[in-house]
Design goal:
Length: 217
């Protein structure tokens, strides 16, 4: 079974990227990078808010109203962006509030970071969020319905490493997440690197030698 990011990426395919590029007057490469950064950013937002009971309930409320079929409807979502159509039960616009729920006051910083990472205009990112956001939420809903995890917390924790590893450089810091080596592989924080420890070990050894010498005099 595909993981969360794989499920999302499978439905944000090259044809959709080409259509979005033409619609938004952006390059296909820029749209591809922006979408590729938004998916893990949204999932990381779910992870970051999951520890806050009030925020978690708000997220679950949005997920309950998202149609799971939207996972396979990215093309329709793109077509509907200009018309203002919504895709939640009762016709409310809750899915449009998802970025605000996940990122809060950090949303402008996230938007600018994605634009800088991908090379698209800042104004393009909110439009892409209206496609990637519902698709991401639908992927979460489908996984939970299918029994891939007992609950949202379990699902996100199981895939945390992959989500963090896919984050564009700088986004983890904006979201307040601990991710080591952001400028490289965006791997999860681990034990201190050996090259950092060696100078301290060398100093400790020299200090011990000096003490032994002084005692011997």
């Amino acid at each position: 079974m595909a993981n969360l990011l794989e499920s999302i990426r499978e439905n944000l395919h090259p044809e959709l990227i080409g259509r979005a590029a033409r619609l938004l007057n952006e390059s296909e490469g820029g749209i591809s990078k922006a979408i590729g950064g938004l998916a893990p950013a949204l999932l990381a937002g779910f992870l970051e808010k999951n520890g806050d009971p009030a925020a978690r309930e708000e997220m679950l409320g949005v997920l309950r109203r998202i149609d799971p079929a939207l996972l396979h409807a990215a093309g329709k979502l793109l077509d509907d962006v200009a018309t203002g159509k919504t895709h939640v039960a009762g016709g409310s616009a809750d899915h449009r509030d998802l970025p605000d729920v996940l990122f809060g006051a950090k949303l402008p910083a996230v938007t600018h970071a994605i634009a800088a990472f991908s090379g698209v205009r800042v104004a393009t990112v909110p439009v892409l969020l209206e496609v990637v956001g519902p698709v991401t939420a639908a992927a979460l809903r489908q996984k939970i319905i299918a029994g891939a995890a007992a609950d949202l917390s379990g699902l996100l924790q199981n895939e945390k490493e992959g989500i963090f590893g896919a984050l564009p450089t700088g986004l983890a810091s904006i979201l307040g997440l601990t991710v080591a080596n952001e400028s490289g592989n965006n791997t999860l924080a681990a034990a201190p690197r050996r090259e950092i420890l060696w100078p301290f070990l060398l100093l400790a050894g020299l200090g011990g030698g000096i003490l032994f010498y002084l005692k011997s005099c």
